[in-house]
Write a structure and sequence with these properties.
Elements (H helix, E strand, L loop, with lengths): L1 H7 L5 H17 L7 H36 L1
Helix pairs in contact: 1-2, 1-3, 2-3
Keywords: Membrane, Transmembrane, Transmembrane helix
Length: 74
């Protein structure tokens, strides 16, 4: 759920979705039983990675814009 929300609604959730799904995948892989929703965890991890990348790109753009405005004001 966090992966989907991080990509569609609130990008700063991306790193949390990535970390939580990674932890859950470790638990699933260590479990002796077969888990049927492993694919959902992999999808959540992928969406967390995508949202984290979008967050990084947006951060760079915002910082560049702020620095550009500050440099133009001088």
């Amino acid at each position: 759920m966090l992966g989907l929300l991080s990509v569609t609604v609130f990008t700063p959730l991306g790193p949390f979705a990535w970390a939580m799904s990674r932890r859950a995948l470790r638990e699933v892989d260590a479990a002796p039983v077969v888990v049927v929703n492993r694919g959902q965890l992999v999808a959540a991890q992928a969406m967390g990675v995508v949202a984290s990348a979008l967050l990084a790109v947006m951060t760079v753009i915002v910082v560049a814009a702020v620095l550009g405005v500050l440099l133009l004001a001088v």
